[in-house]
């Protein structure tokens, strides 16, 4: 009776994952906590009223682990007394907010590029590289749409 019990316990330990199977490398806090709509809401732009938004996420395993997050948000442009919404200025402010959040996450900004309606930032830390692409444009006369794609790679044996 003792032998079957030992065999059962041994089997449970082996097949339960207690033998130290490898977990994929974790994502950075930037990737884990990224929310385009929250970031824009925190900018407190009175001319923008949120209408709709979508967020998605995907992951592929291996070495490197590749992750992708995509977001889009549509805003209604609101006329406010004495203020006119400036698309280019908004994207510059959003870029500054993104850089602040990247720095708070303990990541290094490796490069940054922008145009009047897009911005792209590459970042890294030991074991991780990533990029954030943002595009924004008017949709008709009274809507403004912002898209973001966040990509990140995590390497198990990175320096």
Walk me through the structure.
A hairpin with a 2-residue loop joins strand 3 (108-115) and strand 4 (118-125). The termini are far apart. The protein is built from four helices and six strands, in the order αααββαββββ. By secondary structure, the chain is α+β, with helices and mostly antiparallel strands. The chain has one domain. The longest helix has 18 residues, at 87-104. A six-stranded antiparallel beta sheet has the order 1-2-6-5-4-3, with helices on one face.
Keywords:
single chain; 159 residues; alpha+beta; 6-stranded antiparallel β-sheet; 28% helix; elongated
| Largest sheet features | 6 strands, antiparallel
Average of the residue pLDDT scores? 84
First and last CA, distance: 51 Å
Structural class: alpha+beta
Strand segment tally? 6
Helix content: 25-40%
Which band does the percent of strand residues land in?
Answer: 35-45%
Radius of gyration: 22 Å
Low-confidence stretches: none
User: Could you say which overall geometry the principal axes of the C-alpha atoms support?
Assistant: elongated
Strands ordered across the widest β-sheet: 1-2-6-5-4-3
Number of helices: 4
How many separate domains make up the residues? Answer: 1
Order of helices and strands: HHHEEHEEEE
Chart the SSEs and their pairings.
Layout: H1 2-15, H2 29-33, H3 36-42, E1 48-60, E2 65-77, H4 87-104, E3 108-115, E4 118-125, E5 128-139, E6 143-154
Antiparallel strand pairs: 1-2, 2-6, 3-4, 4-5, 5-6
Q: Summed up, what is this model?
A:
Helices cover 28% and strands 42% of the residues. With 159 residues, it is an alpha+beta fold.
């Amino acid at each position: 009776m003792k032998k079957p019990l030992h065999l059962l316990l041994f089997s449970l330990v082996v097949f339960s994952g207690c033998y130290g199977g490898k977990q994929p490398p974790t994502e950075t806090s930037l990737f884990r906590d990224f929310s385009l709509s929250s970031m824009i809401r925190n900018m407190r732009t009175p001319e923008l009223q949120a209408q709709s938004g979508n967020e998605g996420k995907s992951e592929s395993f291996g070495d490197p682990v590749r992750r992708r997050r995509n977001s889009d948000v549509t805003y209604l442009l609101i006329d406010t007394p004495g203020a006119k919404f400036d698309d280019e200025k908004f994207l510059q402010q959003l870029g500054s907010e993104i850089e602040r959040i990247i720095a708070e996450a303990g990541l290094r900004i490796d490069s940054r590029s922008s145009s009047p309606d897009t911005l792209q930032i590459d970042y890294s830390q030991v074991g991780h590289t990533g990029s954030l692409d943002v595009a924004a444009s008017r949709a008709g006369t009274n809507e403004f749409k912002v898209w973001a794609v966040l990509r990140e790679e995590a390497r198990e044996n990175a320096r």
